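Troubleshooting: if your tokenizer reports a length mismatch, compare your output against this known-good record of 479 residues.
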Amino acid sequence: MTIPPCDLPEFVWIWNNRLGQETPAHHRRIARWLSAREAAGDRRLLLMAFRGAGKSPLVGLWCAWLLLRRPDTRILVLAADQPLAAKMAAQVRRIVERHPLCRHLRPDTPEAWAADRFTVRRPGVLRDPSVLAAGIGGNITGARADVIVCDDVEVAGNSDTEAKREELRERLAEAEFVLVPGGTLLFVGTPHTAESLYRSPAEGGSFLRGYQRLVIPVVSPTGRPAWPERFGLAEISALRDRVGPLAFRRQMLLQAVDERAARLDPAALVRYAEEPDYAEAAGRPLLRLLGRRLVSGGGFWDPAFGRPSGGDASVLAVTYADDQGNQYAHRIAYLTHDPGNAAADPATQQCRAVAEIARDLLLPVVRVETNGLGRFLPGLLRQQMARAGAACAVVEHASSRAKADRILAALDPLLAARRLYAHESLFRTPFPKEMAAWRPGDAGARDDALDALAGALLAEPVRFPVLPPPGPRPGWRGR
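Known-good structure output:
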């Protein structure tokens, strides 16, 4: 079968037209770039585009286009794990099945048409399939490929420490032995760390030195959205507020920024002075703050010895949440004990203080960090809750996530969205100073209160603002 010449932008347009959808401007730009690199003989390529840009489906079209031009092409898809790689391979297979120009490539034997590996109808008899999917942790020794697509090989789970990043580089180096001489290696992804694989030499990167690059952030330096139909300025601003500036700069602006550049600014806290107001309506208890109904709340206790002379602080953080997605840091209590009190040991004194706060603030639950000292406290705290008359549950909590990650994940998005309120009592404690001085990775920085507050905030489910119900819709059925 003779196939008329077709460049990649036209191939993409035919596919989208068949699906009844438009081809966005940034997709046309990517298609032109890939086509130009193919014509120029460039064999080392890096494509970075913002999350949600549709870059993986477009790369799948590129792979199908390569098979259309040269059916003997062998393509290896590498991703952070096998399911992600198989997803890309399945996308290429669907395109080959359904694209008007590719139907002749489907073989007659069904055994050559699996989800994670398949072979098109081709003149040569080759050992390797046309498309093979593999995770970077899998064994690809012995495979051979004319094209290797590294699709999202860098993710948060394999790049958050130097040891993991070094292991990732070592595994990716194996691709050079799989690629045949003159083959093409394409990286597709977004940075997840300051030491990203994708950093340019100007940013201090060396792993992809010499690669031809195309970088498409969600918004240009002049403020023009890359995909205004889906990511307008309002949507971009709302997304920045939801995920926080650090994640937004990495995933949407494609900047490999350092965590240490992040700063928790106390000025971003919304200050208030009111106390919760308890009332009952129609037999139902209601708790309001600033005229808004509170839907949940609780405390998080990060215990320590609480020595008056210093050391790690024992901190209880109390938060509430309303149904509009706002969080209220209502109390930060630095707990200590009186060494001269012979009637109660230090642990009992702190548990008594926590129980009194829980009773006075009507807390439904207090979570106790049990990684260290707190392992022995929950039982004692339950006793003190009963003695204080606090109808409050005690839940044991063990943290496995890095402390700096917890703090940033909890506070950064809320501060950016101006949805974290702070009671004026917090500003009479060391908390604002601790917050302003904190930097990720600074081992000497005090972070006891930040850690407790992060624990309380992360325990809350994500809530979206409650919208009014839509009005009645006119009937569309005929009588």
